[in-house]
Amino acid sequence: MMDKQGVYRFLREQGVEYECVEHPAACNMEEMSHIPLPHPEADAKNLFVRDDRKRNYYLITVKGDKRVDLKAFRRAHGTRSLRFASAEDLASILGLLPGHVTPLGLLNDRERRVKAYLDAAFLEAPGLVGVHPNENTATLFLKTEDLIRILKDHGTDVELTEL
């Protein structure tokens, strides 16, 4: 499983430029709101959810100030009823702890079980997304297009959507 240093190494190997801000651990958007970031408009909120049969898993990544209505998401994307995945599922599938959820955790999904939904708003200027490097003590700002590319290259199903 790729940890924080592994993420940095992987991004360098992939030629992905990023800006890193080290900060105290932040487990949720409320805690993140107290951390001065250079691109607050690019900060991402991530929801790791599963269907009611534990067959399909989804990572929903939206702008930090947005609220996600899971019932509306379900209707729009034709999924079964959705619930938040357990800490055990998060650890076994993405190798992450609660409060550390990030699209970069999808690089740990060896079986490609998780479908990623990315808020299309991240493509708007400046075209950046701010995510944790598999640990909530730093935020990386990288081009949204680079994030999409590395996830797709990994074999992750990524869908841009209006959220």
Spell out the blueprint of helices and strands.
Blueprint: H1 4-13, E1 18-22, H2 29-32, E2 44-51, E3 57-63, H3 70-77, E4 82-84, H4 87-94, E5 114-119, E6 128-131, E7 138-143, H5 144-154, E8 158-161
Parallel strand pairs: 3-5, 5-8
Antiparallel strand pairs: 1-7, 2-3, 2-4, 6-7
Provide structural commentary.
- With 163 residues, the chain is of the alpha/beta class.
- It has one domain: YbaK/aminoacyl-tRNA synthetase-associated domain (YbaK protein), CATH 3.90.960.
- Helices cover 25% and strands 26% of the residues.
- The chain is built from five helices and eight strands, in the order H-E-H-E-E-H-E-H-E-E-E-H-E.
- It has helices at 4-13, 29-32, 70-77, 87-94, 144-154, and strands at residues 18-22, 44-51, 57-63, 82-84, 114-119, 128-131, 138-143, 158-161.
- Strands 4-2-3-5-8 form a five-stranded mixed beta sheet. Strands 1-7-6 form a three-stranded antiparallel beta sheet.
- Strand 2 and strand 3 form a beta hairpin.
- The model has no long low-confidence stretch (mean pLDDT 95).
Give me a quick take on this structure.
By secondary structure, the chain is α/β, with parallel strands linked by helices.
Task: Please name the defining characteristics of this protein.
YbaK protein, single chain, five-stranded mixed sheet, alpha/beta, 163 residues
Strand tally is 8
Structural class: alpha/beta
Query: What is the count of distinct domains?
Result: 1
Low-pLDDT stretches are none
Encode the helix/strand succession as letters.
HEHEEHEHEEEHE
Q: At CATH's second level, what is the architecture?
A: Alpha-Beta Complex
How much of the polypeptide forms β-strand, as a percent range? 25-35%
Largest sheet: 5 strands, mixed
Q: Regarding CATH, which class? A: Alpha Beta
How much is the average pLDDT? Answer: 95
Write out the strand line-up for the largest beta sheet, numbering strands in chain order.
Answer: 4-2-3-5-8
Radius of gyration: 15 Å
CATH superfamily: YbaK/aminoacyl-tRNA synthetase-associated domain
DSSP summary: helix tally? 5
